Amino acid sequence: MRFTLPDDKKLTHEMVIPIRWGDMDAMGHVNNTIYFRYLEIVRLEWLYKVGAAANPSTEQGPLIVNAFCNFVRQLEFPGDVLAKHYVTNPGRSSFDTYITLERVDEPGVVYAEGGATTVWSDYAAKKSAPLPDWLRDLVS
Predict the structure, then answer these.
(1) What confidence tens digit (pLDDT) does each residue in 49-61 have?
(2) Of the residues 4, 77, 122, 135, which has the maximum number of CB atoms within 10 A of its CB?
């Protein structure tokens, strides 16, 4: 199954992630599990940047309820990945994130694309909570 990224997404963050030698598997390319790590790295950096990252001392925060990755091309060491983070589809308590991964030395060539649904959660109640207005403004 292949997921399609929507056209109406909003770019919210970009970062460069170095490909490490240890990211590769026995086949000589970046292991599939590492692509999910790259997606997580950029998503978390954005959440920290906007003040929405999960924190044990807070009562509410984000939870990832699903994640996907379309593997388009094989990433290989050495190199750097440009990760572009997008948001869309704000609901009562959730929004979608999408990320594209390209090599810095090949701008515009997508090697992988993925995403996740983020739900704002009341940690003590263990259920969803309405998105705070400040966060809704960021993802709308």
Answers:
(1) 999 988 877 899 9
(2) 135
